[in-house]
Amino acid sequence: QVQLVESGGRFVQAGGSLRLSCAASGLTLSNYAVGWFRQAPGKEREFVGRINWSFGSTYYADSVKGRFTISRDKAKNTVDLQMNSLNPEDTAVYYCATGSVFTLRTGVRQSEYDSWGQGTQVTVSS
Predict the structure, then answer these.
(1) At residue 89, what are phi and psi to the nearest 5 degrees?
(2) For a 10 Å CB count at each end of the chain, is N or C smaller?
(3) Can you give 29-51 as a three-state secondary structure string?
């Protein structure tokens, strides 16, 4: 059974940094991409970024490019989201998800991902 568990969300001041982690179990990630999405109150869930597990290649939404970095730890089977220069607009519940590289196309749509974590809350105060 695939299980994704996000952690690391908390309250942080604007300008600060935060590191989220996504722990995966029940699957071999070598054929997957791991995406990060977020959902702010009253808004639709949006793409943040993704990483191809095998190659380590990444892609980011314009809104976070240059501030957020996704990395993976093969030994721990985790994917981290390093968030710097946070602002109140980054406040959201952050989710990680896995999608097969054999079916993934753009990797920015929720429908391309099969398994999701429960989310972790990030609150950025001004």
Answers:
(1) -70, -10
(2) N
(3) HHHEEEEEEEECCCCCCEEEEEE
